[in-house]
Design brief:
By secondary structure, the chain is mostly helical. It has one domain. The longest helix is centred in the N-terminal third of the chain and has 26 residues. α1 packs across α2 and α2 runs parallel beside α3. The N and C termini lie far apart (about 45 Å). The strands form two sheets. It has a two-stranded antiparallel sheet with strand order 1-4. A two-stranded antiparallel ribbon has the order 2-3. This is DUF1501 domain-containing protein.
Length: about 200
């Protein structure tokens, strides 16, 4: 698939090396899927399938430090009252299955799960749903996470909104910074390019 790169230089060498590494990584993940065994029966929805794949990679112990997946459908401009509960039911049952899987194989102690949305929703209803909003929500799960709320509950009164949006109370980069520094023991400034306020006592 990857023929010798045309031309020379550090950029071309990097591109060629990245392509080769990607193929090697794909082979490792394929082996992980073949070796995976579990007594946990995951749900039949998309997010359950994806978290099962995450479990396969983690349990294979191939050195992956961050594993990312996603689940769409939350852009509820219409029919939010009926679709939103189902979406969260899918997410919650998939998460429960994922942790049951890891716990059963004594592989949960070094795992934390960050759940976040790329955008929030507005407060005011619009055509049976809500439009994109500024402030969102994040959940951090895992046996080493100190449970609780780490922000102020949002004020939905009209005078407290910012152009119709909930007012953000925590910079999302503070969440990333806290996880990188305090959980992964990395230098967050090297990843984020700047220093951001830490959220105390997450772990």
């Amino acid at each position: 698939m990857y023929a010798p790169a045309t031309g020379r230089g550090p950029i071309m060498e990097y591109i060629a090396r990245t392509g080769t590494d990607a193929l090697k990584g794909a082979d490792e993940i394929k082996k992980a899927a073949q070796a995976y065994q579990s007594n946990v029966e995951y749900g039949s929805n998309t997010i359950s399938s994806r978290l099962k794949d995450v479990a396969k990679v983690h349990l294979a112990d191939i050195g992956s430090k961050i594993i990312y997946t996603e689940y769409g459908g939350f852009d509820t401009h219409a029919a939010q009252a009926s679709s939103h509960p189902k979406l969260w039911n899918d997410v919650s049952t998939a998460i429960a299955d994922f942790w049951d899987d890891l716990k059963a194989q004594n592989a949960d102690d070094n795992v934390s799960m960050l759940i976040f949305s790329e955008f929030g929703r507005r407060v005011k209803e619009n055509g049976g749903g809500t439009d994109h909003g500024a402030a969102g929500v994040s959940f951090l799960l895992g046996p080493n996470v100190n449970g609780g709320s780490f922000s102020e509950y949002p004020d939905i009164r009209a005078e407290a909104l910012v152009e119709g949006d909930l007012a953000p109370s925590i910079d999302f980069r503070s969440v990333y910074s806290s996880i990188l520094d305090n959980w992964m023991q990395l230098e967050s400034t090297e990843v984020l390019g700047n220093q951001f306020e830490k959220i105390e006592n997450l772990f």
